[in-house]
Amino acid sequence: MIAILSFVGLKILLHDYIEVPEWASLGFIALSLLTGVLVSLKLSKDEDIIEETKAQKKL
């Protein structure tokens, strides 16, 4: 989320100097969101594995 907000903020500030195509903006935002979802799913899976391992050790 920070990356998206930073990108949009810089785009607004530099609008008079640099023209960023719409497809590039949308691509960056989509890629950022996809990366966030994938990392979140990976971390969630890793936490589940750790919890299962701890539960098995208690038995």
From TrEMBL:
This is Uncharacterized protein. It comes from Flavobacterium polysaccharolyticum. The lineage of its organism: Bacteria, Pseudomonadati, Bacteroidota, Flavobacteriia, Flavobacteriales.
